[in-house]
TrEMBL record:
Cofactor: Zn(2+)
Sequence ranges assigned to domain Periplasmic binding protein in this UniProt record: 326-438
Any Gene Ontology biological process: riboflavin biosynthetic process
InterPro entries: Creatininase-like_sf, Creatininase/forma_Hydrolase, Peripla_BP_I, SBP_2_dom
SUPFAM superfamilies per the UniProt record, alphabetical: Creatininase, Periplasmic binding protein-like I
Keyword field contains Hydrolase: yes
Keywords: Hydrolase, Metal-binding, Zinc
Pfam families on file: Creatininase, Peripla_BP_4
Molecular-function GO terms, alphabetical: hydrolase activity, acting on carbon-nitrogen (but not peptide) bonds, in linear amides; metal ion binding
Protein name from the UniProt record: Periplasmic binding protein domain-containing protein
Amino acid sequence: DKGTLGREIMTENIHYEKLTWTEINEAVKENKIILLPIGSIEDHARHLPLDTDSFIVTEVCKRVATFFRGQVLVMPTVVYGYHPYRMDFPGGITISWEVFTKLLEEITLCLAHHGFKKILLINGHGSNHPLVQIAARRVMLEYPDVQCAMLSLWEIEEFQDAFREVRESEYPGGASHAGEVETSIYLALASQNVKMAEATKDISFPKSKYFYTDLASEKSPKTSTPVKMMEWWSTLSKTGAIGDPTKATKEKGIKLLNAMVEGLRKIIIDFKDRPVREIEDKHVHKVDAPSFYRYPKKQIQHPIKIVYISPEMESSDVYKIPVEFMYKAIADAKKANIEINISCKSSPSHDYKHQIQSIERFIQLGIDALIIHPADLKPLKPIIQQAIESGVYVVLVNLLKTEEYADLNITSYIGFDNYISGQLSAYATVDYLGGPGSLGRNKTESPSVDLYLD
């Protein structure tokens, strides 16, 4: 119905945060799709509230979720976005691009960790777009069996078609920010919060054939290839708007909102049925981790803090040798003007529980690297993984087979084969004694040279 909002908002079974942990498990079993609305808090001229982007994207997601009878869950909206260029107008809350991207990545990584396989990020703010796209790609690097996609509301084809039918503002520029589109949709959703008496046309930015902005894409002799450049907002707008909100009506808003919902509904249906394909690595060598970046390492500052956790060192000279080598390495590092602090921690009776406690404490202390001789790798894996995800470089030292630690994205592994090391020790002993000779009284052996020389 073009005259009314498409559906009543039914909140039952669509809000992620209203579920219990047991219901989350059921949602995973049922392969439910996750929608994450993403907006901003920023000025929208004199007539619209700061929450315009967040409010609209949230309402679109809630409405489309009701079509799927509980098979689509809507996450709490990420209301803070990226817009530092707008801080010459009061009210905006901008998040640095690094923090914003990392926030989205960590939210979606949590969803993937819990078992959700289909995650759709829905963006409602222009400058968020490239950062949301990066975050979605990062999740799929970490979880190749998860599909994480994104789109911005104005890209929906049904919306574009509907707006062309009702548009009255000039192109380009009449529907960029707080203009005909956003004002119409806000009027349809909550007209009591729109100050139409304050709405004024503002298309004062310097337009050219290549430098222009508009939510709609149209063929026009006035425009050609759009070149992206974001200048400080006060150099583009006098009021905070770029557009003509005076052309906005509630009736237009209803039509545009319904078109967005319908277009997103079709996208979700297609997304739901999209198959996940196996990665086929084309390298000639074995690549253990499908992710190129995996867990990005933190920036290390001097002094570099390294911890070595080994078995009880007092009872055996074997475990003292690596410590001696590390102190020699520290001396070499200092010659190269690299400052290193190293701590050696032994665990009584080679106890993995004590090692877990030690690693937890060292993560909290912000160490840069962990070298560990695991007492028992299997129960230690969760805390080692936590260290890796915290940006700690991890080196394992042990008698391990590759498959035992293949699921950990460690920095390096140092190990040896007992049988081969025994052979080498024997060869070294024979060499030290000057070659083959008497092995006990009245017994002489004459092995070939190949047996004891490497």
